Model the fold of this input.
Amino acid sequence: MRLTPIPYLFMRGGTSRGPFFLRSDLPQERDKLAEVLLAVIGAGHPGNIDGLGGGSAVTCKVAMLSGSDHPWADVDYFFAQVISQAREVDFSPSCGNILAGVGPAAIEMGLVEPRDGQTTVRIRAVNTGSLIEANIQTPGGEVDYEGIAHIDGVPGTAAPIRLNFSEVIGSKTGRLFPTGNPVDEIDGIRVSCIDAAMPMVVALALDFGLSGYEGKADLDATRAFYERMEPIRIEAGRRMGLGDVSHNVVPKFALLAPPRAGGTVASRYFMPWDCHPSYAVTGGIGLSACILSPGTIAGSIVAPRPSGPTASLVIEHPSGALEIVADFAITAGELDIRKIGTLRTARLLASGHVYVPSRLWQAGAGQGAAAGASPIVRPPSPCLTK
Done:
């Protein structure tokens, strides 16, 4: 069997990891791109034994980078979530943890010229339209991966990477509250359907008979919760204007409970068919918007609501906590987020070529057909791909 080599960097970004590619080194046609990414990850096997995936949602992520034609941005970041045990690739979400690796990768790939000391990389998240400023430590004009910054969910310490997001409201739907309501009731459960960096459905843990302090393993073993949650998530997706989301990881789902360790709130985040071992950055931004907005489900947990103009929100999760810092205002009862961000770290793990069967794709030839059933491909919103 002939193989097609594809250059890549293998990086940890925040609490996730995966291959980083130049977009120009991959198929441009979406179905063929999906087939190649399925082969890269080794999707369809619990351990992804025939690819680079690690058998979980946080280790089956792909970042694709290119120079940006956006007047503000340096780099376009196109994200793909490969479903670990299925032939599915979801291009609809973004990932804020993998995003932590985009700045370093863009420098390593030659897309951005580093400065001596610190380099600011301006990133457009193609999937959602968000704009992100990443501050990378580059002493001597080289990316520094070592440092004293620690993030919960990752062992050890590394160089700090500060991520600041703007234009996060209405990432997929164009509205902070896509249903038009800060609270909806679906199948007897009160939820807030919110869209800031990531469309989310937020509910109270107690309404599902949970404490909200369970660990990932306990929650993933509680299949009755997922059987109750998934129809609500699907109906919420329909009401949010996202269509049939039964094979789509968006909207994500989050449960809230009162904090236990001095934070703002305790939360569990679902991806959506298993619990995140820590917390997604985009999920943290979405949840922060829910907390800051008047009238949402979070009002019964977080009181008094932060009044601004800045707020530090600490989300307690299964591995520790995630701090989100927001610069915001409430105008005529509506939330306006000027800037919102967090601290992450990243590390370059490997570089070289990953190989896929040439029958899936022959680089530059545009030929070859994949064997087996066609993958399920979920595209980003058309308005975000231009």
Notes: The mean pLDDT is 93. The longest helix spans residues 223-239.
